[in-house]
Amino acid sequence: MAKELQGKRIAFLATDGVEQVELTEPWKAMETAGAEPVLVSPKDDEVLGLKHIEKGDTFDVGTPASKAKADDFDALVLPGGVVNADDLRTDQDSVRLVRAFFDAGKPVGVICHGPWILIEAGVTKGRTLTSWPSLQTDLRNAGAIWEDQEVVVDDGLVSSRKPDDLPAFNAKIVEEFAEGRHEGQRKSA
């Protein structure tokens, strides 16, 4: 990959229980493409990753969600992990931040259980995306069109199902994030 994201700041929104590989692999893809990834969290110190159900590593929080603004970033990545995704959707600062990315038309990448917060933010109606299969009913009930694909791109919204999809997910988020703003993001916001 070239440095197509040089000078861009990418927010990674996560908390304890984040599926570690869904944080670390996209993070590496952003760095390789020249971007500056920043961990945003409801926590203000560190986040514990999980390797499926086993404890993983800890990651330093760069910006607390309570202070984060979409204007400070060029794009957003929402890693999965059941515990992470469930906790984030109940945190009002995190929900506000996700909504602000859509309001601003900025690209968003989401994987696995990550779309739960999209439902809470009210940005899924009429959008086509994928997720971990157990979320398909939740997404359809929230007005989304759910597809069982490795990666789905809907006007700046990039989604994937699981860690096995990370190579395709990473390639697409780099591509979409390089394009910048997407007016289609605003239609769901």
Question: Could you give the topology of this structure?
Answer:
Elements: E1 9-13, E2 18-19, H1 20-32, E3 36-41, E4 46-51, E5 54-60, E6 63-64, E7 75-78, H2 82-88, H3 92-103, E8 108-111, H4 116-121, E9 128-129, H5 136-141, E10 145-146, E11 151-154, E12 157-160, H6 166-179, H7 183-188
Parallel strand pairs: 1-3, 1-7, 2-4, 3-6, 7-8, 8-12, 9-10
Antiparallel strand pairs: 4-5, 11-12
Describe the overall structure.
The longest helix has 14 residues, at 166-179. The protein has helices at 20-32, 82-88, 92-103, 116-121, 136-141, 166-179, 183-188, and strands spanning 9-13, 18-19, 36-41, 46-51, 54-60, 63-64, 75-78, 108-111, 128-129, 145-146, 151-154, 157-160. It is an alpha/beta fold. It has a seven-stranded mixed sheet, with helices on both faces. Helix content is 34%, strand content 25%. The protein has seven helices and twelve strands. Strand 11 (151-154) and strand 12 (157-160) form a beta hairpin.
